[in-house]
Amino acid sequence: MIGKFKTLRKVKETKEDLALRALRAKRRELAEANEIRRHRDTALKESTSSLKLRESDVYQGIMHKSVSFEEIDEVKDKVLMLHKNHQQLRDDYEVAAETCCRLSEELKSSQVVYHTAQRTREKFDNVLEDLQRDKHEQDELNEELAVEDNLSKGMPRPL
């Protein structure tokens, strides 16, 4: 019976190890996602702070001179491209932030799985220790009984 519990304990230990590896992998994944989010946040803030200046720079090319409608359309397209690129930075940041939230929840789930596996393995450790202690006590008792039995066989019986 102890052998079966040792095998089960080994299975539970393997499950705990797998859960720990998954937990560590999820932590790394979340750390990488947070780093990406920070970079995208920085890029978005830089774009936001310089958007008006970049827009003004585009308009400066046509200010105070006569221009054709084609040149005006080109300037409009450039300004629209600036805003489109800025919106893409905003969208990229939002995706990164959502990814971090999702990974944070997945990390919590991984922690629950790991702690559950850990508690299960600890229960098997305790049961196995109890069984081994009981077996040791039973072996000692059997040894004492055998010694008493041998001693009583060698001694004359009172009448």
Quick synopsis:
This protein is mainly alpha-helical. It has helices at residues 2-60, 69-154. The protein has one domain (2-149): Helix Hairpins (Orthogonal Bundle), CATH 1.10.287.1700.
Give an overview of the whole structure:
The mean pLDDT is 91. This protein is 91% helix and 0% strand. It has 2 helices and no strands. The protein is mostly helical and 159 residues long. The protein has a single domain, classed as Helix Hairpins (Orthogonal Bundle), CATH 1.10.287.1700.
Features:
single chain, 159 residues, mainly alpha, Helix Hairpins, 91% helix
What is the CATH architecture descriptor? Orthogonal Bundle
What string, H for helix and E for strand, traces the elements in order?
HH
Strand content: under 5%
The unreliable regions are none
Helical region count? 2
The average pLDDT value, as a whole number, equals: 91
Reading off the top of the CATH hierarchy, the class is best stated as: Mainly Alpha
Q: What name does the CATH topology carry?
A: Helix Hairpins
Structural class: mainly alpha
Give a count of the beta strands, DSSP E runs of length 2 or more: 0
